[in-house]
Amino acid sequence: MKCDSKDIMKRLHGIGIIPAVVLERAEDAVLLADALCKGGLPAAEIAFNDPAAHDAMIAMKKQRPELIIGAGDVLTKEQVDSAMDAGADFIASSGMNREIVEYCQEKGAAVCPGISTASELEQALALGLHTVKFFPAEAMGGIETIKALCNQYKNVAFLPVGGINASNMLDYLALPQIAAVGGSWMVDPDLIRNSQFDQIEKVSKDAVLKMLGMHVKHIGVNCTESDGRETADKFANLLQGSVRETAVGYFGSEMIEIMVKEHFGTKGHIAIGVNSVERALTYYRAVGIAFDEESITYDDAGDAKFAYFKEEIGGFKIHLVNN
């Protein structure tokens, strides 16, 4: 099964958090796939040194075709073949093995080898790779080491794994060069072993919502041109802010936008700030919530930076914007 490496890495970047899964029983695969997708994390890196991995990947892909599945801890060419036969979307390893990387490239498989030093990173770059796993992340200096590498190597994306959890993931995800983070806290082996898939869904959703950091950024109020400035003055006075004129109206403090030249929504709009509009789009689409596709704008890197939801609620259009 050949995979478009750039497309896979772009999709992983949108998901943001890649669950690192150890599966002891192939029969757990279907329920796990459902739990992750319902929780807003349609991805998993399955440890391929477990006998159940091959069959589990087949079952997960059949149950949830949208799930991006990686084969982790791959050490041999035979494991590459087995993973591709099972439908793996990408191959990952803990170390930088040139022979395995070249074999994956020959087979047309997206590959993400592990590195922890500048020398290993240069080996990956020499093979034409632009996304690498950084492992073991915390043990090798964490985000500070990645920042130091980024100062020297400008066009590399990192997928850090090892010691990352709900407490420190935002430190990593705040760095633009982080493609996604890998972690196992939402797929603790005990939760899988005890069939606590509802808990896996909940912890996954909690992780996504923390990653997104959603909050109300401002409220837009539709107003006539004749009343716009006076309305902005009143809001600024009430909220102890100042008036700022824009191309379409005014801000009466930074919390209230007075729309006089363009109206969005019957009554107005609500701006929701998020840490990443790109990742918010991925999450909401995964749980079945639609966007006004024509409203989406993108930054120079091709990531979404602004988007309106399709549905109007209570007379208000709602849009996402980067913090």
Biggest β-sheet, characterized? Answer: 8 strands, mixed
CATH topology heading of the largest domain: TIM Barrel
User: Based on CA inertia axes, which overall geometry fits?
Assistant: elongated
> Per DSSP, what share of the residues sits in E-state strands of 2 or more residues?
15-25%
Which CATH C-level class of the largest domain is it?
Alpha Beta
Structural class: alpha/beta
What is the CATH-assigned architecture of the largest domain?
Answer: Alpha-Beta Barrel
Helix percentage:
25-40%
**Number of distinct helices:** 12
Question: What is the total domain count?
Answer: 2
The span between the termini is 39 Å
Q: Strand tally, please?
A: 17
- Radius of gyration, Cα only, in angstroms? 22 Å
Q: Strand order across the biggest sheet? A: 11-12-13-10-14-17-16-15
Q: What is the fourth-level CATH superfamily of the largest domain?
A: Aldolase class I
The SSE string, one letter per element, is HEHEHEHEHEEHEHEHEHHEHEEEEHEEE
* Average pLDDT metric: 96
Q: Could you explain the architecture of this structure?
A:
This protein has helices at residues 5-15, 29-38, 53-63, 77-85, 98-107, 118-126, 142-152, 169-173, 189-193, 197-212, 225-238, 277-286, and strands at residues 17-21, 43-47, 68-72, 90-92, 110-112, 114-115, 131-134, 157-160, 181-183, 215-222, 243-245, 249-252, 256-259, 268-274, 297-298, 304-308, 316-322. It is α/β, with parallel strands linked by helices. The protein has two domains: 5-211, TIM Barrel; 215-322, 2,3-Dihydroxybiphenyl 1,2-Dioxygenase, domain 1 (Roll), CATH 3.10.180.10. α4 (77-85) links the parallel β3 and β4. α2 (29-38) packs across α3 (53-63). The two termini are 39 Å apart. The mean pLDDT is 96.
